[in-house]
Amino acid sequence: MNAPSPALSAHDELHAEIVNTFDTTAMATETTLLNPRFYTTDFEEMDKVDVTPVRKEWDALLAQMKSDPNKGHFKKNADWDKVDWDGMDPALRSEFIDFLVSSCTAEFSGCVLYKEMKRRGSNPDICELFNYMARDEARHAGFINDALREAGVAVNLGFLTKAKKYTYFRPKFIYYATYLSEKIGYARYITIFRHLEKNPEHRFHPIFKWFREWCNDEFSHGEAFALLMRTDPKLTQSWQNKLWIRFFLTAVYSTMWVRDHARKDFHNALGVDIDWYDQEVFRKTSIIARQVFPIELDIDHPRWIPNLRRMNDGMLEMERGQKAGGLSGWLRHKAGSVRAMLAFANLFLIPVKHQTPPANVRLEPAF
Ligand SMILES: [Fe+2]
Ligand SMILES: [Fe+2]
């Protein structure tokens, strides 16, 4: 995945670009437990949502989205310093590209889902919201892809739409999963941004300078899903749904932990301790999620971190088994998956904290 050297002819460069695009797209097309997924849902059911119970907050949020505060933000300007991709340590380079590809895929997966909702819907409130959100995610994905292109790689987004497998989720699961991923997205971007504000010597790529305004988009998207969940109290209050929320919180947090711990060099370069960073992102997300979720995971519980580590070890064992192949590889893979599942069950069973979400759901980004 090296950038074409100046010595290559124009034809070779073009060929290298095609090969690189192919590899990176293959990376993004792969569906594993950890890679960002593409979702589809019951668009008709979602189109029937009546936002009357939250009308006042809804109109205020949509007016803010319509004003498009980040319209001119996702463009390279003088702050975009030259990136020395060739001089970058190869391990860092590979992990950073992996980070960018996975972020780009996640952004684009939001774009595809939101655009489809807009296209299929007839409810003006819903269509307007999804139109603005698709607009934002397309910009985010495009901006990351621009950064990747400088490294001689790019994700072929058009191809991805066709080739990637889609996971069907009922609308309520879309709410839980997407609400969480938007708020986590906010927490991740702002935590990195604040850290680099204090430690600018670790800012090894200019894209991090764009994270503050960027994360405000994600924050608003999360607000929209919080409002959608508030239109129907059952979604967050029935005991079954509380269990689902608990499941999604555990799944989303633990997946993030495993994914981040696979990128040691990337976090080293940022000067970030991964355990600290993940706990910090969970903490911010949990504080925000009090706006709508009646339960919160106890991330300071003595079983929390040990089981996250166990789950990570199990997943690594699965990967090693898969690579080894054969019967012993298969057994290793199975043993790893049992280990990871047990750790997940252990995390899920940690007693949760209960709370009553406030009457007014709306929040402003405060971190
Ligand atoms: Fe985004
Ligand atoms: Fe978003």
Please tell me about this protein's structure:
67% of the residues lie in helices and 3% in strands. Helix 4 (90-120) packs across helix 11 (264-270) and helix 13 runs antiparallel to helix 14. It has helices at residues 10-29, 43-47, 55-67, 90-120, 124-150, 157-163, 171-198, 211-230, 234-237, 239-261, 264-270, 274-289, 304-324, 326-348; strands spanning 38-40, 166-168, 295-296, 353-354. The strands form two sheets. Strands 1-2 form a two-stranded parallel sheet. Strands 3-4 form a two-stranded antiparallel ribbon. The chain has one domain: Ribonucleotide Reductase, subunit A (Orthogonal Bundle), CATH 1.10.620. The chain is an all-alpha fold and 367 residues long. Mean pLDDT is 90; it is low at 1-19. It binds fe (ii) ion (FE2) (2 copies).
Name some characteristics of this structure.
14 helices; disordered N terminus; 67% helix; 367 residues; single chain; Ribonucleotide Reductase, subunit A; two-stranded parallel ribbon; mainly alpha
Q: What is the overall silhouette?
A: globular
Spatial order of strands in the largest sheet: 1-2
Amino- and carboxy-terminal Cα gap: 36 Å
Radius of gyration: 21 Å
CATH topology: Ribonucleotide Reductase, subunit A
Bound molecules: fe (ii) ion
* SSE order, one letter for each helix or strand: HEHHHHHEHHHHHHEHHE
State which percent range the strand residues make up: under 5%
Q: State the CATH class.
A: Mainly Alpha
Mean pLDDT: 90
The major sheet is characterized as: 2 strands, parallel
Q: Provide the low-confidence segments as ranges.
A: 1-19
Helix-strand category: mainly alpha
- Count every beta strand, where a strand is a DSSP E run of 2 or more residues: 4
What is the level-2 CATH architecture name?
Answer: Orthogonal Bundle
Helical stretch tally: 14
Binned, the helix content reads 55-70%
Work out the count of structural domains.
Answer: 1
